[in-house]
Specification:
The structure is a single chain. The chain has about 170 residues and is an alpha/beta fold. Helix content is about 45%, strand content about 20%. The strands form 2 sheets. It has a 3-stranded mixed β-sheet with strand order 1-2-3. The longest helix is centred in the last third of the chain and has 22 residues. The protein is elongated.
Length: about 170
């Protein structure tokens, strides 16, 4: 079964995209656009202290007096970060996304962050794995498989005669 580390390896890039907490929302948005990501981790000193996402930007824009050119990303970030170990199985990741109503999970090993998984990353990986399993099952259960069975050539459906009749 796939793990968080396996899914990180499948991603286009697994490196963490970070920004200092005192950078502006516009700087964060520009960095996200440049990196082609939907979220950015917020760092204060040497610590990741939060995450800011495209969805946050939509909500922030509706706040009275919000100015993305002046607002510090650290003032608008989400601080409730959830981390999982690299060996967490995919079904557990899915449970966490659904049960905790979150969209991002940090992946760590030995107290070091390895990358960030989105619900889309996990869904994509899970669907690709299911597709592979279905193709394999279809291959096993295909008519070609049954047509090549040894008894097939000995049994005659029209006469009802088969290998048992020949043994008598």
């Amino acid at each position: 079964m796939k793990t968080a580390a396996d899914i990180l390896r499948e991603k286009r890039t697994s490196r963490l995209v970070e920004i200092p907490h005192d950078d502006t929302i516009m700087e964060a948005a520009a960095r996200m656009a440049g990196e082609r990501v939907g979220s950015i981790l917020v760092r204060r000193d040497d610590q990741i202290v939060g995450i800011w996402t495209e969805r946050d930007f939509l909500h922030n824009m509706l706040e009275p007096g919000f100015d993305p050119h002046r607002a510090a990303v650290g003032d608008y970030m989400q601080t409730a970060l959830v981390a999982v170990s690299a060996d967490t199985p995919v079904y557990r990741l899915e449970e966490m996304f659904l049960g905790l109503f979150i969209r991002h999970l940090l992946v760590k090993a030995n107290e070091t962050y390895l990358g960030l998984l989105s619900i889309g990353d996990v869904l994509r990986s899970s669907l690709l794995e299911k597709d592979r399993e279905i193709r394999e099952l279809n291959r096993i259960a295909s008519w070609e498989y049954y047509e090549n069975w040894a008894w097939h050539h000995k049994y005659e459906p029209k006469t009802g005669r088969g290998h048992r009749d020949e043994e008598e």
